[in-house]
Design brief:
Blueprint lengths: L12 E5 L3 H9 L4 E4 L17 H11 L3 E5 L9 H14 L3 E4 L2 H9 L3 E4 L8 H11 L3 E3 L6 H15 L7 E8 L11 H6 L16 E4 L6 E4 L9 E3 L4 H6 L4 E4 L6 H21 L5 H16 L7 E2 L21 E13 L4 E6 L4 E2 L3 E6 L3 E6 L3 E3 L2 E3 L1 E2 L4 E5 L9 E7 H8 L1
Helix pairs in contact: 1-9, 2-3, 3-4, 9-10
Length: 432
């Protein structure tokens, strides 16, 4: 189905992940309209660094100061023994000014309603039709739904149409959210028991060990023959990437686009958020211009090159155009075109002259190289090195165990980690 390319008038929200403070700042600096995060436990990324309960005040303040919203993920199943903890977390979120709670357990839903915090129904609830959505809206006042990942683009359009038919203008109160980019699970909306059976680590508790992404030795019990299953990693999906057809999603009436990745690196958060931000802004600023289609096609190519540079397992359109699983499985490990190599640490930053003093502990770097700075107060800052000074004298290269100064356009801070961004083949050749 071809969808109306004029699209809705209002830009959808761009929601980015934050697994730690560095990623949080990276998301905000890259233009996220909202950030979602987890605290302590009871979220689907238990292996991520996550935040302390006390951090919620700072998180909400940073987001609000940047014109963004803060969403707390409490999206696991909840056991009876955890109800007191659940209430404490919801109460703390309300007190901190968190804008909404993402959940699918009705205990969390009830607590959030009681503490007057907005609720977003997680994709874990697998809401995939207008009838389910209307029931939750009418009975509990839920206004945002993270649709099941199995929904196709046509089905999303149909859900929006049914809401308008059933509710009239009131349908504008309901928001549809979809995943736009990041890791996918081979199971239905992520509800998998493979990790539970193999490692006693439940995916529904955010503890998934991702056994689906490994090689397996299959043995014929009758004759003892063995086969290595792993060449195509049939249980390991590629990453979702909707940017090649994001204009169609925008035209479908989606209200929020979510980037997956609370367990991924700050540079992943920075690059992916910035790419989707640039696309969305370009679409709404230029879509009525006569050369829009040509310019949009060029922009897609540029942004896909950037997305290809950070961690991914290959790209897939997910289920947006159907449910042909064989077309979105792929190999394990990163398919990124670039990697980061640790250089050293910032030992001082001189604001008046905008120069960072770097102690080179690992790989050296040279003029023309790309450096990336990461820190909890800095987020992610990338620069192309134009000049290097050692002992107040210009040099072309910074060698291991040296102390050098580099001119910057942005602010970094003492103890920020410094990396050189290099093509993957350069890293591989260095290892040989």
């Amino acid at each position: 189905m071809q969808h109306n390319n004029t699209g809705p008038m209002k830009k959808p929200e761009l929601m980015a992940p934050a697994g730690d403070m560095t990623s949080l700042r990276a998301a905000l600096d890259a233009g996220a309209d909202a950030v979602y995060f987890g605290v302590v436990s009871m979220n689907m990324r238990a292996s991520a660094r996550n935040f302390a309960v006390e951090d919620m005040v700072t998180i909400a303040s940073l987001c609000h100061a940047g014109g963004a919203k803060a969403y707390l993920a409490l999206n696991t199943i909840v056991f009876d023994r955890e109800l007191e903890l659940a209430e404490n977390l919801v109460a703390a979120a309300a007190a901190a000014g968190v804008d909404a709670i993402i959940c699918w357990d009705f205990a969390i839903l009830e607590l959030a309603l009681r503490h007057r915090v907005a609720v977003f129904v997680s994709t874990q609830m697998s809401v995939a039709n207008s009838a389910s959505l209307l029931f939750l809206y009418r009975q509990f006042g839920v206004r945002r739904f993270v649709l099941a990942r199995e929904c196709t683009l046509d089905e999303i359009v149909q859900i929006r149409g049914q809401l308008a038919a059933r509710l009239g203008s009131e349908a504008e109160n309901i928001e549809l959210e979809v995943f736009a980019h990041g890791a996918m699970c081979v199971s239905v909306s992520g509800r998998c028991f493979m990790s539970q059976f193999g490692f006693d680590a439940s995916a529904n508790r955010g503890e998934c060990r991702q056994p689906c992404r490994r090689e397996y030795l299959i043995k014929d019990v009758r004759e003892g023959k063995e086969f290595l299953l792993g060449q195509d990693y049939v249980m390991s999906p590629k990453d979702l990437c909707s940017l090649p057809f994001l204009d169609q999603i925008l035209a479908a009436g989606v209200n929020s686009l979510k980037i997956e990745g609370r367990g991924r690196s700050p540079e992943y958060v920075s690059v992916v958020t910035a790419c989707y931000r640039q696309f969305i802004d370009f679409y709404y600023d230029h879509r009525r211009e006569p050369d829009f289609a040509v310019r949009l096609a060029d922009l897609k190519k540029q942004l896909m090159t950037r997305l290809d540079s950070v961690f991914h397992r290959g790209f897939s359109e997910g289920f947006f155009f159907g449910r042909q699983i064989s077309q979105w499985t792929g190999g394990n490990g990163s398919k990124a075109t670039h990697r980061k190599v640790h250089v050293g640490v910032v030992t001082n930053f001189f604001r008046k002259v905008m120069v960072a003093e770097i102690r080179v502990e690992g790989a050296g770097f040279a003029c023309g190289d790309e450096l990336m700075f990461q820190g909890s107060a800095t987020g992610v800052v990338s620069i192309r090195v134009e000049s290097i000074e050692e002992a107040f004298k210009p040099v072309q290269c910074a060698k291991k165990d040296s102390l050098v100064g580099v001119k910057l356009a942005g602010i970094v801070r003492e103890n920020d980690q410094v990396y050189r961004i290099v093509p993957v083949d350069e890293v591989d050749n260095a290892r040989q």
